[in-house]
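Changelog excerpt

This revision adds worked examples to the README so contributors can see how folded entries look when concatenated. The first example is reproduced verbatim below.
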Amino acid sequence: MSIPESQRDALRQAAIDISQKAWCPYSGFAVGAALLAVDGRIFSGCNVENASYGLTVCAERNAIGQAVAAGCREFQALLIFTATQQPTTPCGACRQVITEFAPDIDVISVCDGPNEIQVSMRELLPRSFGPHNFDQTSRLTE
């Protein structure tokens, strides 16, 4: 799905702005994510690290959490910004969470350098586990 350039620019700016608020004292790797809802709203999130690394929350999951908390569950694009020379795609945990809400979403990764990556969620996480798997399960009965 292609989005208008104006929306893409707004996503990019939102991701850059929020990346500057990231809490990343351990890795120094700030990430900003901006999620475009089907109704045009933009939800953003940054990574929040923790000394107990497993408790770190990624920018993508924070953006989705913001959207869900606002009652939004339908999305059309996700843009991720990293202040690096090469773009970075979502980690595996984020891919799983993104797929929960938007298995067909376009994921755009941008950076300080000239390169970018734009792929569908299905390309990033083929054969994913998700809500569709529950439709296939047999229910145990007493």
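The second example, added in the same revision:
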Amino acid sequence: MFEELRSRLLRYLLVLGLSVHDGEEIVQESFLLLFLHLQSGKSRQNLRGWVFRVARNLALKQRAANQLQMRRTVDFDETLPEQHADRNPNPEEQLRSRQRQSRLLAVVRALPEQDQSCLSMRAEGLRYREIAQALGISLGSVAASLARSLEKLGRADGG
């Protein structure tokens, strides 16, 4: 389970504004807490959602303890072009792509924290039920949040 969720969980923590170091620490602590949870014979239902919820709670505590971490966000502008951009786009295509990324990133950053969390967790492959459990909200709230966020992103993307 650690191998399956480690990178997804770390990316989610980075989106919440933690540094890589703090994110890795929280991932380790989350799985230690999972081990203790299982060792004590507690529920084994929806362990993916449980791990994300524990990691989210630890991340929020870390952000509260460190005001600088609270203001930091992952700089998608530097990482996305390297991972997804065509290697040979012309200058006009490059400019359009950067403008689109900036526009969409601005929309995501303007979303309420809960909507950002729902969107990030869904992007990491979590199901609605797992997101609801991780955030402590209803399934309907997850669906509404994602629909609202995707609508805003669609409008910003010209669709």
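Reviewer comment on example two: The CA atoms of residues 34 and 51 lie 7 Å apart. The mean pLDDT is 83.
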